[in-house]
Design a protein that fits this description.
The chain is of the alpha/beta class and 223 residues long. It has helices at 10-15, 34-41, 58-71, 81-85, 96-115, 129-139, 153-159, 164-169, 201-212; strands spanning 46-51, 76-80, 119-123, 144-150, 191-194. The protein has a single domain, classed as P-loop containing nucleotide triphosphate hydrolases (Rossmann fold).
Length: 223
């Protein structure tokens, strides 16, 4: 039932009218390009997008992965949903519309960081396929590496590190993913981490690294 409650396509989201949209914008071109920044970093930029239920382990795995990448001299940045919601996205709630806007803003920030030549680890529940597809379209399919952190709802409720599931079950928290709002599982993620088989985050990182390294990491050639 929940799976089909919030069906929306990425095209519908992208084409939805926005109040006060600017129409006379002409972004200038600058001399320092993404390719030049990547050559300075000596690696290509990439977005590693972690999706899954609250408590699945997205931020824990991303944090461990960033430590490993940093040790290898890779320039990274970790974008986490809670951190953005106390700053850039503090005006948003958890309705379907606000979740979509949350991910749209995140995707734009990630895209700018990609242009800076960084490897960005983005940790967001991002429950709807359409919003994840919107992020993929914004960032570019070739730059978007989707990681499904797949933990059963029962396991996430058992962990409940922030006490959110308890509040949602008590009716104190509305629009909570997995309880009264849908989570649409990724159909073709680049990496699928089954967390009831990967209890140790470091093992999950090893699996993830093996998948990431299948893609080229060399900087783009300059024009």
């Amino acid at each position: 039932m929940l799976e089909h409650q919030f069906q929306t396509t990425a095209e519908e989201i992208k084409e939805a009218p926005m109040a006060g949209r600017a129409t006379s914008i002409h972004p200038p071109s600058f001399h320092i390009t993404r390719a030049l920044r990547e050559r300075l970093h000596q690696h290509s930029g990439r977005i590693i997008w972690f999706t899954g239920l609250s408590g699945a382990g997205k931020s824990t795995i991303a944090n461990a992965l960033e430590v490993r990448l940093h040790a290898q001299g890779i320039s990274t940045y970790l974008l986490d949903g809670d951190h953005l919601r106390i700053g850039l996205n503090r005006d948003l709630g958890f309705s379907k519309e606000d979740r979509i806007e949350n991910i749209r803003r995140v995707a734009e920030v990630a895209r700018m960081m990609l242009d800076a030549g960084l490897v960005v680890l983005a940790c967001f529940i991002s429950p709807f396929r359409a919003e994840r597809e919107l992020a993929r379209m914004c960032i570019g399919k070739e730059n978007f590496f989707e990681v499904f952190v797949d933990a059963p709802l029962a396991l996430c409720e058992q962990r409940d590190p922030k006490g959110l599931y308890k509040k949602a079950r008590a009716g104190q928290l509305r629009h909570f993913t997995g309880i009264d709002q849908a989570y649409e599982v990724p159909l073709e993620p680049q990496c699928h981490l089954v967390m009831n088989e990967l209890a140790d985050p470091e093992v999950a990182v090893e699996v993830l690294l093996s998948q990431i390294m299948r893609r080229p990491t060399q900087p783009s050639p300059t024009s």
